[in-house]
Design a protein that fits this description.
The complex is a heterodimer of chains A (604) and B (237).
Chain A: H1 2-20, E1 42-47, E2 54-59, E3 72-78, E4 85-86, E5 97-100, E6 110-117, E7 122-130, E8 141-150, E9 156-164, E10 178-186, E11 193-194, E12 202-209, E13 214-222, E14 235-237, H2 245-272, H3 274-281, H4 295-300, H5 303-311, H6 316-323, H7 345-350, H8 382-388, H9 400-408, H10 410-417, H11 424-427, E15 442-446, E16 452-455, H12 465-481, H13 488-493, E17 553-557, E18 563-566, H14 596-602
Helix pairs in contact in A: 9-10
Chain B: H1 2-25, H2 46-75, H3 82-85, H4 102-106, H5 110-123, H6 125-137, H7 143-170, H8 187-190, H9 196-229, H10 231-234
Helix pairs in contact in B: 2-7, 2-9, 5-7, 5-9, 6-7
The chains are: A alpha+beta (604), B mainly alpha (237).
């Protein structure tokens, strides 16, 4: 309790004392400041360099009469020993300085010093301090720098600055723990750059400019205290700028020229290969055309040429026969394949120069050249014909083929005598020339073996048809050359025999099949029955019926897609039973051919 | 006879019963893992241990200086900043005096150096605890100050442990330490002063004294290290 009271009392006294009298020594340690001449004698400062000794200085001030030595004396008091002692050493060389050597310097204790005039016993000044608080270390020594690196541009560089602690400070023992501060500036600049405190003895400086001299200095202070020592001597850091522009200059030039060269090459390439590039990048749109046919010909060419071209097109033929595979089964094998080469087909047809040729016709069934039509230019063997006409008694009838074969192909007839073939071939007088013969026969039936049963057509046994036949030579030639691609007109000129019965005849233009290909196999199907090909029942002879021409010319296409046909001049009946419906007018076709685009008009 | 026997028995029982208490006061000399059981420690060289102890002392000294500055800026009126310069006039006395001059310190033996450090560390444990409580009473005490004070208390414990191990290793002494020696010296701090300025000054003084003592610890330990590494240069000249 008593101790507590004493403690608080001392504190309050201390507080009052401090408030009343300001010590000369500042709170942050002593500093040497200019003596104040207006005042009386006073302490100007105390300093310690290495925490082992310290000095104090005073000034007489205005009291000039106290300048003689010994007039003013310094007394000090430590907390350890509460007695006042006089300054142990008045420095002789320096005026008004009191030096405390190692013996008298104690750290961790406070000192109070007084400036007294002994004769008058007046205390002019007093102050208290601890030695650690008045330590100002000496400046570091051995400041030097080494170059760390230079930037790629050559404009900046980094250095490492080193120094040594002041020799007076015993850092090795740990008596003093020093921290350092480096400052630098460009030469003759006014502002110093300050770096953070460094406890080591080296520091890196980054980003210094080449070709500019840099001034560097360092100072130190005790750790956890505030008094910096003096600055060391400045050093000058200078790095000459390396002229590196030449190294970068050619690089950029090379790059620029390289790019220009590449661009020029590309342009040349494009211009030289323009056509090919155009094809690659902008392929031409294929114009519609038919293989083998010049589009110009289609526009301006003559129709006969056109027809010849068209007839030779394979593209139509497959359409014929691919849809009707049974057509391929039409086999009209001839006995002597070698003989066909000997005489032309025209001779065969006309029956003029038949010598040694046993072949009526040399049409091979497998050469499907537009034969799936009303016309069947393939004339089978007489033997086959005879076999194909089982129902026909044959004799009484005028088989067109058979009858005509006999006069024109006597050898054939001779040949057949050996066979079982009926004499109707032979019995038939050679009344009908080949010309009178119908070139086209109506297929009425098929044998299971694939043979074609032809129905007899009605013949006009007018002899004056010979002339017409001869006129048809030319047509036949054309026919033969085209592979028996016939036309209606030709058929008409050939004096189409009337069909035995309208219901059994060819319906060249089945009404329901108008839209389809005219030349397809549907011709061979009777309209009365279904479209599937099968053997037609044989038509009983209908002599009462007027001869009906089986073939006619398509004149118009009705709007309802029925064809308006030209009736043949000699035949009143029309092969087709198409009602005369209004059809889109078709341009007249001299040959009765339908061009593909006209064919297209038929479609809705 | 029976009374003697019973008294002896009582003393013996007291000793036996208090033995764990003494042990608990003792600084743990062996390593303990998280569960608290004694475990085999990885050995550390004496040199490294001394380095770590010195690091601790340096840190404590630095933090104490920062705490003092913080407190001064916050609570102490400017005219009274000179108190700091005076190094703390009312620091509590030590059981044995510590020399202040370099020459005298250099003459101190290693043993006394270590014991002095230990004594200093132990003398500050209680006052720091008190300081923590008293700082909390201030209305606007900055958190940094409180944290630093707390941190220093913890680090002081570690420092004590390290110094005890050093004593054991370097001096081959086993110590049962106890901080009860200084309990009586803490009485002045137990009383709370209602006066604000007084408490401020008292705390300020406490911080200044602690900073000084932390400097002492660091200096002694560094001197010890210098002696360990290079005997010649650290001797007095």
């Amino acid at each position: 309790m008593a101790e507590a009271m004493a403690y608080s009392l001392s504190l309050s006294l201390l507080y009052l004392g401090l408030l009343c009298g300001n010590g000369l020594v500042s709170a942050r340690g002593s500093e040497l400041f200019t003596p104040d001449p207006s005042r009386g004698p006073h302490f100007t400062g105390c300093r310690s360099r290495e925490q082992e000794t310290f000095r104090c200085w005073w000034s007489t001030g205005t009291f000039q009469n106290l300048t003689e030595p010994g007039a003013l004396r310094v007394f000090y008091q430590t907390k350890n020993a509460l007695e006042w002692r006089e300054c142990p050493d008045y420095t002789r060389t320096v005026e008004n300085e009191c030096y405390f050597n190692k013996t008298f310097t104690h750290i961790w204790t406070s000192y109070c010093i007084q400036l007294r005039s002994v004769p008058q016993n007046i205390t002019y000044d007093d102050t208290c301090f601890t030695v650690e608080n008045i330590v100002h270390p000496d400046p570091p020594i051995g400041l030097n720098w080494t170059l760390l690196n230079v930037s790629r541009s050559g404009l900046h560089f980094d250095v490492l600055v080193r120094w040594a602690p002041p020799p007076s400070a015993d850092v090795q023992m740990g008596w003093m723990s020093l921290v350092y501060q480096v400052q630098y500036r460009v030469k003759n600049a006014s502002h110093w750059e300050m770096l953070d405190l460094e406890s080591g003895t080296q520091q890196s400086l980054y980003g210094l400019h080449t070709d500019k001299e840099c001034e560097v200095r360092v100072r130190c202070k005790m750790l956890a205290f505030d008094n910096f020592g003096e600055f060391s001597d400045s050093i000058f850091v200078h790095v000459a700028q390396i002229p590196s522009k030449e190294s970068t200059f050619p690089t950029t030039l090379v790059l620029i020229f390289g790019v220009i060269g590449v661009v020029i090459l590309l342009v040349l390439l494009i211009f030289s290969q323009q056509q090919r590039l155009m094809v690659i990048f902008l392929p031409p749109i294929p114009a519609p055309k038919i293989k083998g046919i010049d589009p110009e010909l289609l526009k301006n060419g003559k129709l006969d040429q056109l027809n010849s071209l068209l007839s030779s097109q394979d593209m139509y033929k497959p359409d014929f026969y691919h849809e009707d595979p049974w057509v391929e089964f039409i086999q009209l094998d001839l006995d002597d394949p070698a003989e066909k080469n000997e005489s032309s087909d025209t001779q065969h047809l006309l029956g003029l120069s038949r010598s040694g040729s046993s072949h009526v016709l040399n049409f091979k069934s497998d050469d499907d050249s537009g034969r799936a039509s009303c016309y069947d230019p393939e004339l089978p063997n007489p033997e086959d014909l005879a076999s194909l006409l089982p129902a026909h008694s044959g004799r009484g009838e005028n088989h067109p083929l058979v009858s005509s074969s006999s006069p024109s192909i006597p050898d054939l007839g001779i040949q057949q005598t050996s066979e079982v073939e009926e004499t109707p071939i032979q019995t038939q007088p050679a009344v009908h020339s080949w010309g009178n013969m119908d070139f086209y026969a109506q297929v009425s039936d098929f044998t299971p073996a694939g043979g074609v049963v032809l129905s007899p057509g009605q013949l006009n046994s007018s002899p004056e048809k010979k002339k017409e036949e001869e006129n048809e030579k030319k047509i036949q030639l054309q026919l033969l050359s085209d592979g028996a691609y016939t036309s209606e007109n030709t058929a008409r000129q050939l004096d189409v025999p009337p069909s035995p019965g309208p219901e059994q005849g060819y319906h060249a233009f089945p009404t329901q099949a108008v839209e389809g290909n005219l030349w397809n196999g549907e011709y061979l199907v009777s309209a009365g029955d279904s479209q599937t090909p099968y053997l037609l029942p044989e038509a009983p002879p209908a002599p009462t019926l007027p001869p009906v021409s089986d073939y006619t010319v398509v004149q118009e296409v009705d709007a309802q897609h029925s064809l308006l046909l030209n009736p043949p001049s000699s035949q009143p009946a029309l092969c087709p039973h198409t009602p005369n419906k209004h059809l889109p007018a078709m341009p007249t076709m001299p040959m009765g051919y339908l061009t593909p685009d006209l064919l297209g008009n038929l479609n809705p | 006879m029976c009374v003697c026997v019973s008294s002896v028995l009582q003393v013996w029982l007291c000793c036996v019963s208090l033995w764990p208490c003494w042990l608990s006061h003792a600084v743990p000399l062996d390593c303990k893992d998280e569960t608290g059981s004694l475990a085999h420690c990885t050995s550390i060289s004496q040199e490294k241990l001394l380095d770590r102890v010195i690091q601790h002392a340096e840190l404590i000294y630095r933090v104490s200086e920062e705490s003092c500055t913080l407190f001064e800026e916050m609570f102490v009126p400017y005219p009274l900043h000179t108190l700091r310069n005076q190094g703390g006039n009312m620091c509590h006395t030590k059981p044995f005096p510590i020399p202040g001059s370099k020459s005298e310190i250099q003459q101190i033996s290693d043993k006394w150096l270590l014991h002095s450090v230990l004594m200093l560390v132990q003398s500050w444990m209680e006052p720091l605890m008190y300081l923590q409580t008293t700082l909390n009473r201030y209305d606007d005490a900055p958190d940094a100050l409180l944290n630093k004070t707390k941190w220093v208390s913890d680090k002081l414990l570690s420092l004590e442990q390290g110094v005890v191990v050093l004593i054991r290793k370097m001096l081959d002494e086993g110590i049962l330490t106890s901080s009860s020696i200084f309990e009586h010296a803490l009485n002045p701090y137990d009383e709370q002063s209602p006066e604000m300025l007084e408490s401020v000054l008292r705390d300020y003084n406490l911080l200044i004294c602690f900073k000084k003592d932390a400097h002492k610890m660091e200096t002694f330990l560094k001197l010890l290290k210098c002696r360990q590494s290079n005997k010649l240069s650290c001797l007095s000249y």
